[in-house]
Design a protein that fits this description.
By secondary structure, this protein is α/β, with parallel strands linked by helices. The protein has 14 helices and 14 strands. The chain has an 8-stranded mixed sheet with strand order 3-4-2-1-5-6-7-8, with helices on both faces. The chain has a 6-stranded parallel sheet with strand order 11-10-9-12-13-14, sandwiched between helices. A hairpin with a 2-residue loop joins strand 3 and strand 4. Helix 1 packs across helix 14. The radius of gyration is 21 Å and the shape is globular.
């Protein structure tokens, strides 16, 4: 049986497609999840960065931690953003030793190296892998704090060497194909359909912090970051003071503009298994991304299909990956278009079961089965 080494985000981060794909693969094959190797250097003035550094240092002293099924997590001791030869060589030596010990505990069989991070290119060939898979989930050069020339050079080297490449959006597919040609495959996100369809169950109780809010409830969940359009949300809240605008997720930026409105409610992070209950209490969902952010042409929100599987119609910023997915999605660019879409869905009378049923074919096990078929065919 093949063994998988996967370079990805930190295990405890908010789940994304990375999480879902690897957890599903880990049900049937040995998989070593390698926590983030860092694409930028930590800032000494950032308390959040320093807390993360201390977590990583403490984790680096432990062996891989078994999490579930055949999946274990390794927290490596490496220098983030190693952009010089000496740093790359040291990282390679440090990680090769730790991973090879973990591989011995994972039995025998060929090794697949999967990476969701371009800078893992520095480790290709270090583990005797027979296949390299790059899963491109973002345009990393557009992220603040990441050096674009460096990360683009890493990605180009990776695309030249990967046996198979998956791209989470059409924009990323086109970008990767310019280097990797027909080794690139478009891979739209899936959804844990049964988990989110639980929002349709009559006996599922709404969270108390949600029932305390007046209806209609317009809901969002995800990282509350500066790519969320706060100006748009405040315009909507001012235009409809009788509506409750509910934002669920960890906060990574200044949210003072939102806190000035009594009908905007920031509930903080909730665990993934709590989200269906919150979805049940949403009358309409909102994906309000800032269209001026350069990342938006490449973004494919995982939450889009989750909300639909929960039976919730969605009004979303008019980014390419929301167009044409479902008649239960309204793309919008202005506050007026958002209000029109929200009003339409509030009064449309759709059956939630109908919205949810449309997404059964997107179930993550089916999506991962397709991905595995492509990898094994090469």
């Amino acid at each position: 049986m093949n063994r998988v080494i996967a370079f990805t985000k930190d295990w405890n981060d908010v789940p994304t497609c990375t999480t879902h794909i690897l957890r599903e693969m880990g049900r049937s094959m040995p998989l070593l999840w390698i926590n983030s190797i860092g694409m930028r250097r930590p800032e000494l003035s950032s308390a959040r960065d320093m807390r993360r550094v201390f977590r990583k240092l403490s984790g680096a002293l432990r062996p891989p931690e078994h999490k579930e099924n055949n999946l274990s997590v390794l927290s490596p001791l490496v220098f983030p953003k190693a952009d010089h030869a000496a740093g790359r060589a040291l990282n390679r030596t440090l990680l090769r030793s730790a991973v090879r010990r973990a591989l011995r505990a994972m039995g025998n069989g060929p090794v697949e190296l999967w990476t969701f991070l371009p800078n893992a290119v520095d480790f290709l060939g270090a583990f005797g892998e027979s296949k390299v898979v790059y899963y491109c989930v973002d345009d990393w050069s557009k992220f603040p704090g990441i050096a674009p020339d460096w990360i683009n050079a890493c990605e180009r080297r990776l695309l030249e060497r990967a046996d198979t490449v998956f791209a989470a959006s059409r924009y990323l597919e086109s970008k990767c194909r310019a280097v990797a040609g027909d080794r690139v495959h478009y891979s739209p996100h899936g959804v844990w359909h049964a988990r989110f369809a639980a929002a349709l169950q009559p006996n599922l109780r709404l969270p108390s912090d949600l029932t305390a809010l007046p209806t209609p409830r317009i809901g969002f969940y995800g990282n509350v970051h500066d790519w969320v359009d706060f100006e748009l949300i405040t315009k909507l809240a001012a235009a409809r003071p009788q509506w409750s605008f509910v934002l669920i997720g960890p906060v990574y930026c200044d949210v003072a503009p939102l806190q000035r409105h009594v009908n905007i409610h920031l509930l903080g992070r909730r665990e993934p298994d709590q989200l269906p209950a919150y979805c049940k209490g949403f009358d309409v969902a909102l994906i309000p991304y800032r269209l001026t952010d350069p990342r938006m042409e490449s973004v494919n929100p995982v939450k889009l299909r989750e909300l639909l599987a929960a039976g919730v119609p969605v009004v979303a910023s008019d980014i390419p990956e929301v167009r044409g997915v479902s008649r239960f999605i309204r793309p919008a660019r202005t506050a007026e278009e958002f209000l029109d879409g929200l009003e339409t869905f509030l009064h449309a009378g759709f059956r939630r079961e109908e919205i949810s049923a449309e997404r059964r074919a997107d179930d993550w096990p089916l999506r991962v089965q397709e991905i595995r078929h492509i990898v094994e065919a090469r």
